[in-house]
Amino acid sequence: MTTLAWTDKLVLNQPQLDHTHEEFVGLLNAFGAALDAGDDALPAYHALLAHTEAHFAMEEDWMARCGFEPVNCHASQHKMVLNVMREALRYATELKDREPLNILRTELAGWFPQHAEMMDAALVFTMEQLGFDPLTGERREAVAAGESGSGCGGSSCGH
């Protein structure tokens, strides 16, 4: 059983981010397959967690370079997801309770498409508007003194 299918709906037309997202989906599926097979899913989970930490750090670096506020709803969502993932790992290793891992697989599969379609799409849009090149870290437009991007790249964020 596939935990989350990679589909065109997840493509944001930003090659580096699309590649990272496809890797996330593959690692989530490998983790889910290990759970389904009754194998020790911790190695697959560790790989998923390490990827997710690097994935979110990459996006947050881009946000900083694009002038997003240091505390914003996109980065806050990343922090929340990583906290839950780390807590599930603690339950599995310290308390020998693997049930949070099963729950988290389902929750990540439901959360990720919505996050990509809203938060990550807004980040990509902002990057495009500023002419930001994630490979070089350079941008066409400089942020005006004192100006920062909204909390999540959109005008509706309360930050």
UniProtKB/TrEMBL annotation:
Q: Does the keyword Metal-binding apply?
A: yes
For this UniProt entry, the molecular function terms from Gene Ontology, in alphabetical order, are:
metal ion binding
Sorted UniProt keywords: Iron, Metal-binding
**What positions does the domain Hemerythrin-like occupy?**
16-122
Instruction: Report the superkingdom from the record.
Output: Bacteria
Kindly list any coiled-coil regions of this protein. none
On whether Membrane is a keyword of this UniProt record, the answer is no
Known Gene3D superfamilies for this protein? Hemerythrin-like
Family of the protein in this entry: Belongs to the hemerythrin family.
Can you name this protein? Hemerythrin
